[in-house]
């Protein structure tokens, strides 16, 4: 008998056997125990034949910040199948089941890290979270940064989270981390944790890193203001006797090259995470649009081939000083936009703007409607420094 079902703790041996095979790693007893603890927060769906696991998808229930709104996000991870069952449509059916379950349970958006971008585009996902990767010679960072304050090694989770929350709120789509996430996903066994304080002993930045083969690898960093950034840069430069370079990932709009004397170090823009709106109606209703004097009523005609219940027309009109969303056609004239759920996701996350996508013929519509949509979307860089 073939069936899709939600897996339980009893299936853990099969789940991790498949993961180790598919992703080509081996877990010792301690590592396996840690993985099982992480999996306790996962919702794991599997395809079984005769009670044998053939394929699986993990859904991680998380929350992210979109335009200052805390929303439920379903993270897709550990998608795997045994080779003899591949290309039979199992993963497609599992993803459909998981997305439908997400929608029923109030998850309005989903993220994933793709092994293949074309593969996940078939299911409505689009690249929305890039980052820049720097490889900086330590000599480039050796200057008098003149910050006010000091740095100390610490494991104060509350201070780390306070700094991170302030920092990530500048960006769109960042994860709202809980203590379990910090302990299981951010802070690793060999991670050096340093918190930077100002002269009033207030935390203004942190640096999580490790050093190997004379390279300093930044695992995570955040700061609340320019002094916090300078404290971090001073701390990095203090490693000049033991490292030759620093590797870090930063938001795509990062401005560090403006602060150093020699900005011609290696900088690479990396496409990273994909996302898709799971429930278009709920997402639009929760979205914080920006009212503008240039607002005109618009109708967004969305096509979602994988979740066809999202397909349809969504009307954006003005009510008092707010923009409201309805499926019912309003009185009066509306200008129309036609787009896929992928492009709608990239627009609403502020990753792309409607004018550029129209110029590439990835969306269509009236010029006035496209300009109106751009005007009411807050301009906020996407950034997702986490991984799952």
UniProtKB/TrEMBL annotation:
Domain N-acetyltransferase residues, every copy: 2-147
Pfam families, sorted: Acetyltransf_17, Acetyltransf_9, SCP2_2
SUPFAM superfamilies: Acyl-CoA N-acyltransferases (Nat) (SSF55729), SCP-like (SSF55718)
InterPro entries: Acetyltransf_17 (IPR041380), Acetyltransferase_Eis (IPR051554), Acyl_CoA_acyltransferase (IPR016181), Eis_dom (IPR025559), GNAT_dom (IPR000182), SCP2_sterol-bd_dom_sf (IPR036527)
GO molecular function: aminoglycoside N-acetyltransferase activity
Organism domain of life: Bacteria
Signal peptide boundaries: none
Stretches of the chain forming a coiled coil according to its record: none
GO biological process: aminoglycoside antibiotic catabolic process
UniProtKB keywords: Transferase
Name listed for the protein in its UniProt record: GNAT family N-acetyltransferase
